[in-house]
Amino acid sequence: MSTERWDAIVIGSGPGGLTAAACLGSSGKRVLVLERHDVAGGNTQVFRRHHGDDWYEFDVGVHYVGECQPGGLFTVVFAALGVGDRLRFLPLDRDGFDTLHFPDFEFRVPAGWDEYERRLVEQFPNERAGIEKCIHVLRSVATEARSFPGEPRPVSDVWARRPLSELFAESELSPQAQAVLDHWSGLYAGGPKQTVLSMHANIIGHYMNGGAFYPEGGGQMIAARLVQAVEATGGEVRTLSPVERITVRDGVACGAVLADGTEIEAPIVVSNADYRRTVEQLLGPEHLAPGTVKWAHDAVMTLGLVCVYVVVDVELTGPNTNYFIFPDYRTDELYEELDRGALPHGDVPFAYVALASRKDPGNPELCPPGHTNFQIMTLAPRGNEFWGVDTGPADGGQYRRNEDYRARKEQLTDRLIDAAERVLGPFRDHIVHVEMATTLSHERYTHSTGGTSYGFLHSPEQTGDHRPQYRTEIPGLWVVGANTVSGHGIAGAVSGGVFCASDILERPLIVDMYMGTQLIDPASIPADGDDFDPLEYCRGERLRAKRAERAASLRERRAQSAEDSPEN
Predict the structure, then answer these.
(1) Which of 20, 60, 65, 21 is nearest to 44 (CA)?
(2) Could you write out the three-class secondary structure of 397-466?
(3) Which one of 44, 174, 365, 471 is CB 3.0 to 4.6 Å from 57, fit for a cystine?
């Protein structure tokens, strides 16, 4: 059993953990990021499938992001970390980056609050007063969230912590208007009665301020650039390194022990792992106050997602937009049925279609020319019972050969394809690849409780001061990621990584970043080689070297075999 010493360790390599590691590294600390999977990136990962000479690449969690315009969150943060010029974000259609397909009409969601409100009024002319009230409150809360501490926030003081359903009720909106305004709930998986208004407002504001974007080269590019930043500061991202427990001595966190017995000492420990698993498994209840343990155990997770990955051998043309297909105008009722563990009326609650090869047409990894690569997603009913499974894979459960599980996947895949054909036209006969990832798939790779991408439900009882803060009650231990106060999504995770590092360093890093401070010199990051592959880069330096050595050995054996051939 060996012991290593670092200035800080980060457990988990999601975008929050990688951002925190890069920020800490920029201050001169040697940071080790530990990842149980063989690829870093969390929900920014991609995966590939081979079919003969062709291969297809699919994003796990990055479908579109906001705040990529000049002065936007991602532009500012990545520039400060020295990788801003290595990330390019491609805009979706500003006139309609989301297209909502309802039984009786279609609605295109534009960038810009004014145009968004104008279209809502145009669609529902008899509800002008209610729509104007609703947009005024949502826009004000989103704007006030960006104000400096101490500045007045009059609308937020009244509305920010209230359920979204109360604004819909006071605005006296029809079910149709509520359904259009609530389409954003698919991005955080909660109904209007369950969701604090500030979450809904901030999600809209995230896209209204500059539009929607997609990272050129796929989501893995975000993780690869952050890995480069960590390595440039003397840190390391180490994959295939599951953490068995966080070391606590005399009430202070001081390192971690890996599953292979390796002991790592560090005065700073940041857990980017699932919060409940951090509390109950990596730490153990004996190190925490009973109230902390109870909250972590009882807190409600958001619903998980299912995703069908599809490639067809035809080019599906159309606008650069995401499609939301809704079977009706229900909102809270859909979530209530899903929370009970059932699909609404035996159908899908909605379908979300994201066309990767439309958003990133120059990416040769996605699919061969003349093909289309896209994903169809929806929310999954709560619990493992829906899938015919008692125990999730993170706790040792087996599921992939379960007949009930396979039947559910087949049934749901068929229904999601039906939904997607409503907006894309018939494509079944052209499918060359199709597979589904479920909540159990997600739990298997990320160990997220309930297999959710979105962390804890954004209810009034689980928001703001009622949500885990970055600093824990154990000195030396910090937490970051979707379950913390910054919230979920790539924006929530990246900003949370900055804020967590700020708390550790006692330095307002986000202010420095917006002031143009260069935390990491871009020249310190080696240039990409001609064969740069973000997926391969995110395996970390050690695994990259091992794989390169194996590949070189294989090439040598093949060359030797060719020389020894009788034909030569």
Answers:
(1) 60
(2) CCCCCCHHHHHHHHHHHHHHHHHHHHHHCCCHHHEEEEEEECHHHHHHHHCCHHHCCCCECCCHHHCHHH
(3) 365
CA distances from 536 to 180, 305, 331 (A): 41, 26, 42
Reported residue count of the chain is 568
Residue 382 to residue 379: CA distance in whole angstroms: 9
**Whether residue 552 has pLDDT greater than 90:** no
What confidence tier does 1 reach under pLDDT thresholds 50, 70, 90? low
Q: Give me the phi and psi of 478, to 5 degrees please.
A: -130, 155
Q: How far apart are CA 161 and CA 141, in angstroms?
A: 10
Handedness of CA 491, 102, 413, 322 (dihedral sign): negative
Amino acid making up residue 377? M
Cβ atoms of 315 and 336 within 8 Å: the answer is no
Measured in whole angstroms, the distance separating CA 475 from the mean position of its chain's CA atoms is 28
The CA distance from 455 to 482, in Å, is 5
Question: What's the token pair of residue 118?
Answer: 């104008």
Phi, psi of 154 (to 5 degrees): -65, -40
E strand spans, 294-369? 305-312, 322-325, 351-355
Which residues make Cβ contacts (< 8 Å) with residue 532, sequence separation at least 6? Answer: none
The whole-angstrom separation of Cα 322 and Cα 368 is 21
**Distance from chain centroid for Cα 67:** 15
Measuring CA to CA, which residue among 184, 188, 199, 208 is closest to residue 69? 208
Q: In what order do the strands lie in the sheet with 263-265?
A: 3-5, 263-265, 252-258, 243-249
* Nearest one of 32, 90, 83, 82 to 63, comparing CA atoms: 90
Would you tell me how many other CB atoms lie within 10 Å of the CB of residue 112? Answer: 15
Would you say the pTM of this structure is higher than 0.90?
A: yes
> Phi and psi at residue 563, in whole multiples of 5°?
-65, -35
Helix (H, G, I), strand (E, B) or coil at 245: strand
Q: Alpha-carbon Rg of the chain, whole angstroms?
A: 24
Condensed to tens digits (0 to 9), the pLDDT of residues 106-141 reads 999 999 999 999 999 999 999 999 999 999 999 999
Nearest-10 crossing angle of helices 489-505, 15-26: 30
Question: 3-state DSSP call for residue 485?
Answer: coil
Helix (H) / strand (E) containing 107: strand 106-109
CA distance 272 to 19: 11
Helix 489-505 to helix 73-80 angle (10° resolution) is 40
- Kindly state the average pLDDT of the residues 144-170: 94
Residue type at 56 in one-letter notation: Y
Torsional sign, CA 146, 148, 149, 153: negative
CA atoms of 453 and 487, how far apart (whole Å):
11
Query: Could you give the CA distance from residue 240 to residue 246 in angstroms, rounded to a whole number?
Result: 17
